[in-house]
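Forwarding these from the shared drive since the link keeps breaking.
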Amino acid sequence: NSTKHIKMGPWDVVRKIFSEEEHKSMSIHDKCDLFFHDYNVTPLFVQENYLNAVPHKPEAKNKIKKIELFASAARSLSFGDLVEKNIRSHNAWSLLPVQAIFSSLVPGQVLEGHIGAQINFPAWFGKNSRQTKMSRLLQELTVHSRLKISGNKEAMNLDYVVPLERSIVSPLLRDGTAGIPQALSILSEYSLVREDLESLSELSSWPNTKTLFSEVESKVKAAFTRAYNKTSVPTPYAAVPIKKGSKADFDSLDTVPEEEEDVPDVEEEEEDSLEVDSMIVVKKKTSAKKVDSAGSSTSKGNKNSKRGRKK
């Protein structure tokens, strides 16, 4: 039990998955637990190294039966890959035990024996990195040539990469330095830059083969680069440099012209006055004389009333 919970690396995990000696003391749950040491990497290690397994089963002595064992393991790995795709795309993490059975338990049980060669690191990581790079290069070419080519990345890869490379590089191979103007005109026609030619060569080449641009002489390449740097044809996607203003321009921004005072318009005042507004009834002001006369009459009346009371 002391060694049961020791953390193992993926190389040790793969060795145990295909080891007949280790399986003798392991239950089905222990075999599935090997997958969960690192469920992101273990399926890749199993897929990379299952062909190096040497099965100890009696039927493995027959070549046809041995091929059938490897075919059964490959089929199980394919099912595990489908399960992993559903897990990643739908966040169905409850399916991890199912993936453990297809990607680890079944291949190890079918090819039970030992690993007969060095355990290799999964080549998937390098392939995935290269695929990401190629996709980025295709995207750049598609964006740069958008004014002339209406296809997407797939169309660029299938229909345009090889013809574009040949149309640019062929004049350099055929005419040498005399073919530089023709190559530059094609670059300008499709709004491509010098780096795009390297991308075209890399995308159109097959493994272990030379690119077409690598066959061009070094002096022709150097002359082509110098001619391209001298022409510097503007591209529609290039960033426009911002012109820096002088100090006088910034000083002029500080001096703000004085604003003229708003002179009220007479007509507007008349329109806004209460007297003109037909919706408002304005009380008429009584004159001061009427108020004084009314006040004096009331005061006289009060005096007369007081005199009458005394009598």
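-- next protein --
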Amino acid sequence: MAANRAPENPYLAARQEWSERYGSYVKAATAWRLVGILGLSMAVIGFSYAMYLSTQVRLVPYIVEVDKLGTSVTAGFPEQIEYADARVVRATLGNFVSSFRSITPDAVVQKQHIDRTYALLRTADPSTEKINAWFRGNSPFEKAKTSTVAIEVNNIVALSNQTYQIDWTEFERDRKGKETGTRRFRGIATVTLTTPQDEATIRLNPIGLYVRDFDWTAQL
């Protein structure tokens, strides 16, 4: 019976041999292409995520208090500072008043004073509108053309854990350095603490203290 079978087609036999010999290579190449595409996709996703993380850097300052000899006394993150730590708040408020009220003929330094003032203010708080109104009617750059004002903070007293009374003296001089007037002021500041979230804020307001409200009057 085997002798009666038609002989195999040599072309079909060659095609079958080709498929058997190289078919596995084709499948392997296809698999490697899929692996390559998958690897490239993972690399793109990883790179994109790394770029996203690089834009989400969160800097948290760590504050160390030292004594007169430079020995570390206390340390901690800003969120651990409570309103009861009045020394930190008083120092910050003293700098705030000095920056707000000082007038210097050096425009660069004057701008730094203003920047430090607004570093402790938030847009929606009443204190910001009050200080905006003051600067609109009393440009320090214009006043600096004829006089300067130096600030001496006399006393800062805590009225509560969020409200402080600040007394200061302003010494006004003409551009020749002659003193032309001395005035005493009293201000009431209501403050809040918020952890700073970016480097720019940390540089000007490292503990995240903001003046929510601020009123001041001249004293007789």
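Residues 1-7 have pLDDT under 50 and may be disordered. The two ends are 133 Å apart (CA to CA).

- D.
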